[in-house]
Write a structure and sequence with these properties.
Strand order of the largest sheet: 3-2-1-6-7-8-9
Number of helices: 13
Number of strands: 15
Structural class: alpha/beta
Radius of gyration: 21 Å
CATH architecture of the largest domain: 3-Layer(aba) Sandwich
Number of domains: 2
CATH class of the largest domain: Alpha Beta
Order of helices and strands: EHEEEEHEHEHEHEEHEHEHEHEHEHHH
Largest sheet: 7 strands, parallel
CATH topology of the largest domain: Rossmann fold
Helix content: 25-40%
Shape: globular
C-alpha cells in the first residue's frame, strides 16, 4: 500500500454509492487526510448517492444548466471549500462542462500547489475543438485515466505521456477466493445485473436466449423504466426468465454464484468487474475503453453495441464448451484479484500524487 504524506482534496460532480469504498480507501492512504467535495445528481439520473466514513465529505450545491449535449454544471462554493480545507494537492474530474473547475485550478496554482485531472479520455477531434480540449487539460499537472485507451487519447491530444497515469476503473476490492463450479451442467444459467433501461439492450438478450434453442435459465437482476415491457416480452419469447428486482451488495452474491455466464449487451455497467470477482466469464458491449482492460480473449468477449448477430454468436460460442468456460472464469478472477481492483486503483492515485509533490 502506497502512502501520500499530504492533505488531499478531491472533487466530484456527484458521489455515487459505488464509489464510497474507493474514496474511503484512498483517504486512508493520505497521511494528512482527504476532503471530498461533491453535489447531488439530477432526479432523472436516478443515481444512488453515498456517504463516506474516512474521507471528509462536504456537500456542494450543484447548479445544473441546460441538458443533453448542452449540459453544464456549476458547483457553488468550490473555492470557499478550498479555502476551508486548504489541501496540498487537488484531484478534479477532467470535464470541461464543470464550470467551477478552472477557478479552483487557478486558486491552487496561485499558492504553488498541484492539480490532477481524472477522466475517461478524449475521443479524436481536430481543429478548434482539439485546441479547446488541449487548453482545458493543459491546466492540470498530471492526468489520471480510467483506461489505457483513455491514456492514449490524452497523449494523442498533446498531454505529456510521462504525466499520464492509468488507474483502471474499479469498484470492488480484490476477491479472496473463486467460486467452485461443476465442469458439466444440465442447464446453463445466464445473468444480467443493471438498470432496466433501453440502452442496456436487454430485449436483445431475451431474443438471443430464445434463439439458442437450449432454453437457458436467464436471471435479470435490477429495476427500471423498461421492466414491465421486458416482462411482457419475456413471457412471449423466453418464459425461462426470472426478474429478481433490484439487489445491492451482499444481496447479489447468490445470483453471481448460480450463474455460468454474465452478459451485458448494452452500454455501461460496473457489475462486470463484480461478476469477474465471482469467477464468471463475461460478454460485454464495447464502450468507453474501461472494458478493454477488463475483458480479454482469455476471459470473455467484447461485441459491437447494437449488434444482435454478434451477441448471439458470442453466446453460442461461450456455451459450446463448458470446460473452456470454466477456465475463462478462472482468468476473470485472476484479473480482478491481481490487476484491477480498488487497492490497485488507490495505489496509482497515490503514485500520481507523489509524482507531482
Amino acid at each position: 500500500m502506497k502512502i501520500y504524506s499530504g492533505r488531499l482534496g478531491l472533487q466530484q460532480r456527484v458521489l455515487p454509492s459505488y464509489r464510497v469504498p474507493f474514496f474511503d480507501l484512498l483517504a486512508s492512504q493520505c497521511e494528512g487526510g482527504m476532503h471530498l467535495f461533491a453535489g447531488s445528481p439530477r432526479p432523472a439520473e436516478m443515481i444512488a448517492s453515498g456517504k463516506t466514513e474516512v474521507a471528509k465529505l462536504t456537500e456542494a450545491k450543484n447548479i445544473h444548466l441546460f441538458g443533453g449535449m448542452f449540459y453544464l454544471c456549476y458547483q457553488q462554493g468550490f473555492v470557499n471549500w478550498l479555502e476551508e480545507t486548504d489541501p496540498d494537492a487537488l484531484i478534479v474530474e477532467a470535464n470541461p462542462r464543470y464550470l467551477a473547475t478552472s477557478y479552483a485550478v487557478k486558486w491552487m496554482h496561485s499558492r504553488g500547489r498541484k492539480v490532477i485531472g481524472w477522466g475517461l479520455g478524449s475521443p479524436s477531434v481536430s481543429g478548434f475543438r482539439k485546441q479547446r480540449r488541449l487548453s482545458f487539460i493543459s491546466q492540470f499537472d498530471a492526468m489520471l485515466s480510467y483506461s489505457q485507451r483513455g491514456a492514449e487519447e490524452y497523449a494523442a491530444l498533446g498531454f505529456p505521456r510521462e504525466k499520464i497515469f492509468v488507474a483502471h476503473n474499479s469498484v470492488s476490492p480484490a476477491p479472496e477466493k473463486p467460486n467452485s463450479r461443476p465442469l458439466t451442467v444440465d442447464r446453463v444459467t445466464i445473468l444480467f445485473v443493471g438498470r432496466l433501461q433501453a440502452r442496456k439492450r436487454i430485449d436483445s438478450l431475451l431474443r438471443a436466449c430464445s434463439a439458442l434453442g437450449t432454453n437457458p435459465r436467464l436471471l435479470i437482476v435490477g429495476d427500471g423504466p423498461e421492466r414491465a415491457a421486458l416482462e411482457s416480452l419475456a413471457k412471449e419469447i423466453h418464459p425461462s426468465t426470472e426478474f429478481i428486482g433490484a439487489k445491492h451488495g451482499v444481496e447479489l452474491r447468490p445470483f453471481f454464484a448460480q450463474a455460468d455466464l454474465f452478459v451485458l449487451p448494452g452500454t455501461g455497467g460496473l457489475a462486470v468487474q463484480e461478476a469477474m470477482s465471482y469467477g464468471l466469464p463475461v460478454i460485454v458491449a464495447k464502450g468507453d475503453g474501461t472494458q478493454d482492460d477488463l475483458v480479454r480473449e482469455k476471459n470473455g468477449w467484447q461485441i459491437e453495441p447494437e449488434n444482435y448477430g454478434a451477441l448471439l454468436a458470442a453466446m453460442k460460442n461461450a456455451l459450446s464448451d463448458i470446460a473452456r468456460l470454466r477456465e475463462m472464469g478462472k482468468e476473470s478472477f485472476r484479473i480482478v484479484s491481481e490487476e484491477i481492483n480498488i487497492q490497485k486503483m488507490a495505489d496509482i492515485f497515490v503514485e500520481a500524487l507523489n509524482s507531482i509533490s
